[in-house]
C-alpha cells in the first residue's frame, strides 16, 4: 500500500482508526457507463469500511467495450405497459425502446397520446 511501511503495522494502525479492510476474490469488475462498459479482468479488489462508509479499491488492467444501445426488454415489461396504458404489444414495445426500457416513462408517453 505504502512503500517502506510494514503491512502488519499498517493493519494495526487502520484497526485503531476504525478502518477495516477485506480482500475480495473477484474474477471480473464491470463498470457500466451510458455508452460503454469498462471491464477489469483478474482484478485485485479491496473493500474498505471506514466508520460505516464502504468503499472499493480496484487494481487491474482495464479495457473498454462499446455497449449496444438497444435496451433489454422482457415480456413482463411489455405486458405491464400494455395493461397500464391500454395499448397493443407493438405500441408498448416501441414505447419501451424509445424510453430505453424505462417502464414508467413508456406508460406516460402512451397515456399522453
How would you characterize this protein structure?
This protein is of the alpha+beta class and 113 residues long. It has 2 domains: 7-66, Single Sheet (Ubiquitin Ligase Nedd4, Chain: W); 75-112, Orthogonal Bundle (Helicase, Ruva Protein, domain 3). The protein is built from 4 helices and 6 strands; from the N terminus they run αββββββααα. It has helices spanning 7-16, 75-85, 89-98, 103-112, and strands spanning 19-24, 28-32, 36-41, 44-50, 53-59, 62-66. The strands form 2 sheets. It has a 3-stranded antiparallel beta sheet with strand order 1-4-5. Strands 2-3-6 form a 3-stranded antiparallel beta sheet, with no helix packed on it. It is elongated. The chain starts with 6 loop residues before the first helix and ends with a helix. The model has no long low-confidence stretch (mean pLDDT 89).
Spell out the key features of this protein:
4 helices, three-stranded antiparallel sheet, 113 residues, alpha+beta, Helicase, Ruva Protein, domain 3, Ubiquitin Ligase Nedd4, Chain: W, 2 domains, elongated
> Largest beta sheet, briefly?
3 strands, antiparallel
Q: What's the structural domain tally?
A: 2
Q: Provide the low-confidence segments as ranges.
A: none
Helix count, per DSSP?
A: 4
CATH superfamily of the largest domain: Nascent polypeptide-associated complex domain
Distance between the termini: 59 Å
CATH class term of the largest domain: Mainly Beta
Question: Which oligomeric form is depicted?
Answer: single chain
CATH topology of the largest domain: Ubiquitin Ligase Nedd4, Chain: W
Any idea what the shape is?
elongated
Residue-averaged pLDDT, rounded?
Answer: 89
| Structural class by SSE content | alpha+beta
Helix percentage range: 25-40%
Q: Compute the gyration radius: what is it? A: 23 Å
Number of strands: 6
From the 3D coordinates, which CATH architecture of the largest domain would you assign?
A: Single Sheet
Strand percent estimate: 25-35%
Q: Helix and strand string, N-terminal first?
A: HEEEEEEHHH
Amino acid at each position: 500500500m505504502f512503500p517502506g511501511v510494514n503491512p502488519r503495522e499498517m493493519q494495526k494502525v487502520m484497526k485503531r482508526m476504525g478502518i477495516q479492510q477485506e480482500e475480495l476474490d473477484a474474477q471480473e469488475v464491470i463498470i457500466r457507463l451510458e455508452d460503454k462498459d469498462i471491464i477489469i479482468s483478474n482484478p485485485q479488489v479491496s473493500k474498505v469500511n471506514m466508520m460505516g462508509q464502504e468503499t472499493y479499491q480496484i487494481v487491474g488492467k482495464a479495457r473498454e467495450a462499446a455497449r449496444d444501445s438497444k435496451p433489454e426488454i422482457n415480456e413482463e415489461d411489455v405486458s405491464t405497459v400494455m395493461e397500464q396504458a391500454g395499448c397493443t404489444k407493438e405500441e408498448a414495445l416501441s414505447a419501451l425502446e424509445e424510453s430505453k426500457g424505462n417502464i414508467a416513462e413508456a406508460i406516460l408517453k402512451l397515456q399522453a397520446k
